[in-house]
Structures are given as structure tokens and as C-alpha cells.
Design a protein that fits this description.
This protein is mainly α and 99 residues long. It is 38% helix and 8% strand. Residues 6-83 form the Methylated-DNA-[protein]-cysteine S-methyltransferase DNA binding domain.
Length: 99
């Protein structure tokens, strides 16, 4: 499991500030298209330096109540990077999806 987590972390490190990717998108990029949940598990255990807050659900939903980098919500960190949200709390994926 460690090897796949390392591969996931290296991929997530490539997501630039102001952009997001879905769990499934990361899974496809590492040639493990049915492993979106594994990506989620990896993000829960992400070491410092991995921008786990840039990985969201495919519909742009963010994790509520989970703190990143010690004391910030996922939405707070994304907003600091200029990511916009719809009123329902989802990321505007058409503008911020990592390509």
C-alpha cells in the first residue's frame, strides 16, 4: 500500500494552487481507475508538503469538518488560493479543474 500512496502523493503534488482534482481523476492518472477510495485514504494520511486539500469529490464537494494543515478547513485553504465555490458549497469545477 505504501508504494501506491507514494505514487498518489507525487501526483497530487503536481496540482497547482488554485486548481483541484477529483479522487477519481487522481486514480485514473496513476493507472488505477477503480481506486478513488484508495486516493481518499491516502489523502487522510498525507504527509506535510502534499496539498491534500486540492483533492475533492467529483461533483466539487469538499470535506466538511476535516482540518488540513493543522487548523484550516478544506474550503478555507482553497479560497485562499482563489478557488471559487457555488452557493451550495461545491467548487466551480469548470473553472478550477486541473487538466
Amino acid at each position: 500500500m505504501r508504494l501506491i500512496f507514494d505514487t498518489i502523493y507525487e501526483t497530487v503534488k503536481q496540482i497547482p494552487a488554485g486548481e483541484v482534482a477529483s479522487y477519481g481523476q487522481i486514480a485514473r492518472l496513476i493507472d488505477a481507475p477503480r481506486s478513488a477510495r484508495v486516493v481518499g485514504w491516502a489523502m487522510q494520511k498525507a504527509p506535510k508538503g502534499v496539498p491534500a486539500h486540492r483533492v475533492v469529490k467529483k461533483d466539487g464537494s469538499v470535506n466538511e469538518g476535516i482540518l488540513f494543515q493543522g487548523s484550516f478547513t478544506q474550503r478555507e485553504l482553497l479560497e485562499r488560493e482563489g478557488v471559487r465555490f457555488y452557493k451550495d458549497g461545491r467548487v466551480v469545477m469548470v473553472s478550477h479543474s486541473w487538466k
